[in-house]
């Protein structure tokens, strides 16, 4: 570990950098934070480009759904249509004319970042359009549709019925036992 103290003067807690600049550079953003900022700016630009433009305070789940559908045109995931001979095949042998779409995982991650950014930018969790039930339903439908089109099965994980809890090094069953 180095003894580099460019950001803070150890003795006085000053925020001057080693060069004497009273405006130190902020720490670089993580990859996640950079992507979240880019996504937030893209969504804001999308709302401004609507006719009439939509302010963030008037944004709702329908605007978010329209944004997700708009993004499909930039997708890179082949999603076979029901009439396609490759529908349900994970590795089709040749190309087809089915559309490219945004992958479900990309949309899910995007919504997670936008949901966080909304609240970080002053929105309340109760009015967060990215947490709207319609968004969750849309994402679930996209996931199921893409899984069927590509021949991939997503199975729900089942909870174990009789789990054993360990409390203070004692093994106790989670259900009371009858005598």
From TrEMBL:
Family matches, as PANTHER family: PROTEIN G1-LIKE2 (PTHR31165), PROTEIN LIGHT-DEPENDENT SHORT HYPOCOTYLS 10 (PTHR31165:SF111)
Pfam families: ALOG_dom
Residue ranges occupied by any ALOG domain in the UniProt entry: 31-158
PROSITE patterns: ALOG
A GO molecular-function descriptor: DNA binding
Protein name: ALOG domain-containing protein
Record's keyword terms, sorted: Developmental protein, DNA-binding, Nucleus, Transcription, Transcription regulation
Predominant location: nucleus
Keyword Ubl conjugation: no
Subcellular localization, as worded in the UniProt entry: Nucleus
InterPro entries from the UniProt entry: ALOG, ALOG_dom
Location of region: Disordered: 1-35
């Amino acid at each position: 570990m180095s003894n580099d103290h460019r950001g803070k003067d150890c003795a006085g807690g000053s925020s001057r950098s080693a060069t004497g600049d009273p405006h130190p550079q902020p720490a670089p953003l993580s990859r996640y934070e950079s992507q979240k900022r880019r996504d937030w700016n893209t969504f804001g630009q999308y709302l401004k480009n609507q006719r009439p433009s939509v302010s963030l305070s008037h944004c709702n789940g329908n605007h978010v759904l329209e944004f997700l559908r708009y993004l499909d045109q930039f997708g890179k995931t082949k999603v076979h249509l029901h009439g396609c001979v490759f529908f349900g095949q994970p590795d089709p042998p040749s190309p087809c004319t089915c559309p490219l779409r945004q992958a479900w995982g990309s949309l899910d991650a995007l919504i997670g970042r936008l949901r966080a950014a909304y609240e970080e930018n002053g929105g309340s969790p109760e009015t967060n359009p990215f947490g709207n039930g319609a968004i969750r339903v849309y994402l679930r439908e996209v996931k199921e549709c893409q899984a069927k089109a590509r021949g991939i099965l997503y199975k729900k994980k089942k909870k174990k019925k009789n789990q054993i809890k360990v409390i203070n090094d004692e093994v106790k069953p989670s259900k009371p036992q009858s005598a």
